[in-house]
Design a protein that fits this description.
With 276 residues, this protein is of the alpha/beta class. The chain has helices at residues 3-17, 90-93, 95-103, 162-174, 195-203, 214-222, 247-271, and strands at residues 24-28, 40-46, 64-70, 73-79, 107-116, 126-133, 180-186, 208-210, 226-235. The structure holds hypoxanthine.
Length: 276
């Protein structure tokens, strides 16, 4: 089956289970599942039931699609994502984004856990991603371009919507919580970075580093979506004394910041105009 047919089959299956038309998509990263408690879930679909969908394997990622409403908006949530380090091809990693594209999603909100490479950051900070560096990952658009999905050479001057970033800052101010902003450096993982790597990433102009998001954002931009992404800073590996990092530390820190992140995302969804 060709890729377009695979995407269509997945989208058709989801649309047969949920008849409303969401226009907002949300991808939840490690330990950030509390978001869905705030959602009115009308339909829950295991990834394993969706034709052609990869299946998530990482602890802390439950692997299901949730459809319903939040703050009066019809949304689709991916609880659990696919990482390149799990052994999926870049095409598999981004498959859910393309299914959301086919379903008519115009706005995509993404969260992740990331390591801080900006020494002014602390564990638990939320960092709005204003830009990314993708050189250390495999670009998911390599290969024959499928014109139905997007253009051959997508512009990357504003992968993260300035308008949505401004909205996030406005909301953070209203809620009186601090919101950092910075550049996210994408890596493949699964190793955390060495001391030299954290330092280099910082010198290259990035404020945080993580193993997800960048491939998803590239494909979302290719698809013409408006994108917002935010990192929970779960470790500050760039500081030598804090360089020993475990997956548990990452999950604990992400869970601790989940309520703040949930309230921010919920307010953002409330404020989104229905895109046409
Ligand atoms: N590096 C890469 N990915 C991560 C990190 C990190 O320090 N923390 C959470 N995800």
């Amino acid at each position: 089956m060709d890729l377009l047919s695979k995407i269509q089959a997945a989208a058709s299956y989801i649309q047969s289970r949920f008849l409303k038309q969401p226009t907002i998509g949300v991808i939840l990263g490690s330990g950030l599942g509390g978001f869905t408690d705030e959602m009115h879930i009308e339909c829950e679909i295991n990834y394993s039931d969706i034709p052609n969908f990869p299946v998530s394997t990482v602890e802390g990622h439950s692997g299901k699609m949730l459809l319903g409403t939040m703050a009066g908006k019809c949304i689709v949530v991916l609880s659990g994502r696919f990482h390149y380090y799990e052994g999926y091809s870049p095409e598999e990693v981004v498959f859910p984004i393309r299914v959301m594209q086919r379903m008519g999603i115009h706005q995509l909100l993404i969260s992740n856990a990331a390591g801080g490479t900006n020494t002014s950051f602390k564990v638990g900070d939320l960092m709005v991603i204003k830009d990314h560096i993708s050189f250390a990952i495999v670009n998911p658009l390599i290969g024959k371009n499928i014109n139905e999905l997007g253009i051959r050479f997508p512009d990357m001057s504003e992968p993260y919507s300035k308008k949505l970033i401004a909205t996030a800052h406005h909301i953070a101010k209203q809620h009186a919580f601090e919101l950092k902003e910075g550049v996210y450096f994408g890596v493949t993982g699964p190793t955390f970075e060495t001391r030299a790597e954290y330092k280099l990433i910082n010198q290259l102009g990035a404020d945080a580093v993580g193993m997800s998001t960048v491939q998803e954002v590239i494909v979302a931009v290719h698809a013409g979506m408006q994108v917002f992404a935010i990192s929970v800073i779960t470790d500050i590996g760039v500081r030598e004394e804090e360089n020993i990092i475990s997956h548990k530390d990452v999950l604990d820190a992400a869970n601790a910041s989940a309520p703040k992140l949930t309230s921010l995302l919920k307010s953002m969804i409330e404020s989104l105009e229905s895109a046409s």
